[in-house]
Amino acid sequence: MNLATEILSGLFVLMGAILMLISAVGILRLPDFYSRLSAVTKNSTIGVVFIVAGAVLYFNNVEVLIKGIGIVLFIALTSPTSAYIIGKAAIHVSVPFWPKTDKSDFDDLEEGPSDREKELEAKGEHLRQLLAQKRERGKG
Amino acid sequence: MRRKPFFKRSLVRFLIHMLLGFGLCSLAMNYIPFVPETAGGALLSFLTAFVAVWLLSYLVAKDYFYWFIQLFFLCKYFVKEFFRSNYILSREIMTPGLSLTPAVVKIPLEIHTDYGLMALVSISNLTPGTLVLGISEDRKYLFLHTLYLEGGSVEAFKMGYKAGFEKRLIKLLA
Fold first, then answer.
1. Predicted confidence (pLDDT) per residue in A49-97, tens digit
2. In terms of pLDDT, which residue wins out, A106 or A109?
3. What is the DSSP string of A118-134?
4. Which pLDDT band holds residue A111 (cuts at 50, 70, 90)?
5. Who's near A19: CB < 8 A, 6+ residues apart?
6. Cα–Cα dist B16/B74, whole Å
């Protein structure tokens, strides 16, 4: 282990920590829920990438390299997916947008029941009618 | 035997490509004396094996050879955009005042398959200020929240977005 790699790996870890700090500050500074979600997704992902790169440089062997690649891969795969689900949930409960947001193109995503639900509803209605007719006949 | 669709066939070939790369890499680490047992040595030998297998694939499967070039361009563009987005957002947070121009954009989709949509949503959630809020019921539109309306208007932003990732993904999925 020479001094140069040590300093370089230290710089990488420091850089990653600073990026994570920036994303934490972003949660406080940005105006609304959606922009905060953007900040958390992007900057914390790149922070993890930098910190793992620093660790790989420090240990400098094959096992750590493979583990590091696995960590980065799975973080990069799961973080956008969770952001998508959180954003969708926010739309579902209609979290307000920042007033300056250009919403001209946005018609509400939840436009009543879907085709499948309507179909099921119609089927249920049909069954209920049949049941009612049967009861009528039973009485008569 | 029914042939699989081109995209799935290419994915299977990509997996074989990766495994061959790993195998050759570990062989090189064990039997070639001058390959160092460090992370850099492993990475370099893996890349060499990977490129060699890719070049050999020209003889076996020509369509995979060209597909891989498209994949490489997509990855390059993605890495570039990823770093750019982080730079922009960090600068926005650290400098005083907000210069955001957020908008919600409804983008007509040309990709309708499961894999394609997953790739598109993941990539857009990691690039400049965009966040996918949902996909319409019939998979025809994508609702995108963006922090910066690049190009000035909603229409210009749509054009830019479609010329970026979607064009490259369509080439992969075709």
1. 999 999 988 888 888 888 999 999 898 888 888 888 888 888 888 778 8
2. A106
3. HHHHHHHHHHHHHHHHH
4. low
5. A43, A44, A46, A47, A50, B86, B90
6. 20
- Mean pLDDT estimate for chain A: 83
Spatial distance between the Cα atoms of B16 and B22, rounded to a whole number of angstroms: 10
Q: What is the ipTM of this complex?
A: 0.79
Instruction: Judge: B103–A22 Cβ closer than 8 Å, yes or no.
Output: no
Per residue in B104-148, pLDDT tens?
A: 888 888 877 888 888 888 888 887 678 888 887 777 888 888 888
Which residues are bridge partners to B144 per DSSP? B105, B132
Count of A-B CB contacts under 8 Å: 135
Q: Please tell me the distance from the alpha carbon of residue A1 to that of residue A113, in angstroms, as a whole number.
A: 64
Query: Residue A56 and residue B39: Cβ atoms within 8 Å?
Result: yes
Which residue in the block uniquely carries the two structure tokens 């007509």?
A: B108
Q: Distance between CA atoms of B68 and B14, rounded to whole angstroms? A: 8
Global pTM reads: 0.77
* Helix spans in B126-166 (H): 154-161
Give how far Cα A62 sits from Cα of A7, A56, B26, Å: 20, 9, 10
SS3 B150: coil
Which residues of B fall within a CB distance of 8 Å from A98?
100, 102
- CB proximity list for A39: less than 8 A, separation 6 or greater: A23, A26, A27, A30, B89, B93
Residue with tokens 């790699």: A5
> Cα separation of A84 and A86, whole Å?
6
Q: Please name the residues in contact with A50: beta carbons below 8 A apart, sequence gap of 6 or more.
A: A12, A13, A15, A16, A19
Residues of A in contact with B117 (CB under 8 A): none
